[in-house]
């Protein structure tokens, strides 16, 4: 489901631009600060309604504008074209339209345009908080299990209500019962979705990782957020007094984590920064394979910011072979055009775009 046309207005230093990307590989090159990453950021906003560089909108929107807009025409597997666009204002409001219809849910954006981001901060997936790994895992489950979003919403609502009651201090346990029942039922269902997905993810990850780097001792495991030998209700019962003291629920899927270890040690503490980046690349490309195997109309679009960063030529080329094999649309940034272009097979369809002071110009186009 590649982008056929992309229009960007008022995103950071980018001048208003409309480009027609290649359905496969798109190389964006230019000096640091020229606006390369801003183009990837615009696509990220289109697919997820938020930036990957800032939690605030103020720095994303050009100071003389009150809002930024990203619009795209998207090619469907059927041969038809759909349109989608988003406008975000400095007041944090947004307007989303798909095929002329106003959409209120950002989840529908994510479902329509699945995105995977690989950038110099990707190593944080390993060394960062469990929340980042839960988000990674749930991205995959969301795109392959249509009931996941409803279940996730049930968990969030019941957890919020239980925590609100816990913060009141000493309360009758019976007041928690309805919300605990809902929380436990939805949590067990969410856990089942996550575990089923992980069974497919692990072999895909191991296969991709083996093509990037040899790390035979690396293991990927899943902690569901509570004792694996007890039901969630049993755990909540045993921790009730402590939950009351803390004012929040200690156990549940909101505590889940993916654990990557080497000989029992946290992989982030053992691997070099470059090795961490390769592991994260393998994790994300594995999700791209699972999405394709699902047979959905939407293939994953990969946004790769600063490809040469911390990767030598050998590993850079190996990563490009994997992206080629996915046969999906890829946007990659780098400083040097030749360094980017030389990493691909000669028969790979690609387009090249030069960015200078916020201006984007297509400079070369290889096989279509």
TrEMBL record:
Gene Ontology biological-process annotations: DNA replication; DNA synthesis involved in DNA repair; double-strand break repair; SOS response
Binding site for ATP: 30-37
SUPFAM superfamilies: P-loop containing nucleoside triphosphate hydrolases
Domain RecF/RecN/SMC N-terminal: 3-359
Keywords, alphabetical: ATP-binding, Cytoplasm, DNA damage, DNA repair, DNA replication, DNA-binding, Nucleotide-binding, SOS response
Keyword DNA repair listed: yes
Gene Ontology molecular-function annotations: ATP binding; single-stranded DNA binding
Gene Ontology CC: one annotated term: cytoplasm
Location(s), subcellular: Cytoplasm
Main localization (coarse): cytoplasm
Matches recorded under Gene3D superfamilies: P-loop containing nucleotide triphosphate hydrolases, RecF/RecN/SMC, N-terminal domain
InterPro entries per record: DNA-binding_RecF, DNA-binding_RecF_CS, P-loop_NTPase, RecF/RecN/SMC_N, RecF_2
Family that this chain belongs to: Belongs to the RecF family.
Biological role stated in the UniProt entry: The RecF protein is involved in DNA metabolism; it is required for DNA replication and normal SOS inducibility. RecF binds preferentially to single-stranded, linear DNA. It also seems to bind ATP.
Protein name (database record): DNA replication and repair protein RecF
């Amino acid at each position: 489901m590649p982008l056929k046309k992309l229009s960007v207005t008022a995103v950071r230093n980018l001048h208003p631009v409309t480009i027609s990307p290649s359905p496969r590989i798109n190389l964006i090159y230019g000096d640091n600060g020229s606006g390369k990453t801003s183009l990837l950021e615009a696509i990220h906003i289109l697919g997820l309604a938020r930036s990957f560089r800032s939690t605030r909108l103020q720095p994303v929107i050009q100071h003389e504008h009150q809002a930024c807009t990203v619009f795209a025409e998207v090619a469907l597997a059927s041969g038809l074209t759909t349109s989608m666009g988003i406008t975000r204002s400095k007041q944090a409001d947004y307007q989303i339209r798909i095929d002329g219809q106003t959409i209120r849910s950002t989840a529908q954006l994510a479902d329509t345009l699945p995105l995977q981001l690989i950038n110099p901060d990707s190593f944080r997936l390993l060394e960062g908080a469990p929340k980042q790994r839960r988000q990674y895992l749930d991205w995959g489950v969301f795109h392959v299990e249509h009931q996941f979003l409803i279940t996730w919403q049930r968990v969030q609502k019941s957890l919020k209500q239980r925590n609100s009651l816990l913060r009141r201090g000493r309360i009758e346990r019976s007041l928690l019962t309805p919300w605990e029942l809902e929380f436990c039922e939805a949590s067990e269902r969410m856990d089942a979705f996550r575990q089923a997905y992980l069974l497919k993810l692990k072999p895909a990850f191991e296969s991709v990782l083996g093509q990037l780097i040899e790390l035979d001792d690396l293991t990927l495991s899943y902690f569901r957020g509570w004792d694996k030998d007890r039901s969630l209700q049993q755990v909540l019962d045993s921790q009730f007094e402590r939950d009351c003291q803390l004012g929040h629920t200690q156990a549940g899927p909101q505590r889940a984590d993916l654990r990557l270890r080497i000989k029992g040690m946290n992989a982030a503490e053992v691997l070099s920064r470059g090795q961490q980046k390769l592991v994260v690349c393998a994790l994300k490309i594995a999700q791209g394979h699972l999405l394709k195997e699902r047979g959905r109309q939407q293939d994953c679009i990969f946004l790769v910011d600063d490809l040469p960063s911390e990767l030598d030529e050998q590993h850079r080329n190996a990563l490009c072979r994997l992206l080629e094999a996915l046969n999906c649309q890829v946007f990659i940034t780098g400083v040097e055009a030749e360094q980017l272009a030389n990493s691909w097979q000669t028969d790979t369809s690609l387009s090249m775009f030069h960015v200078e002071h916020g201006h984007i110009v297509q400079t070369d186009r290889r096989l279509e």
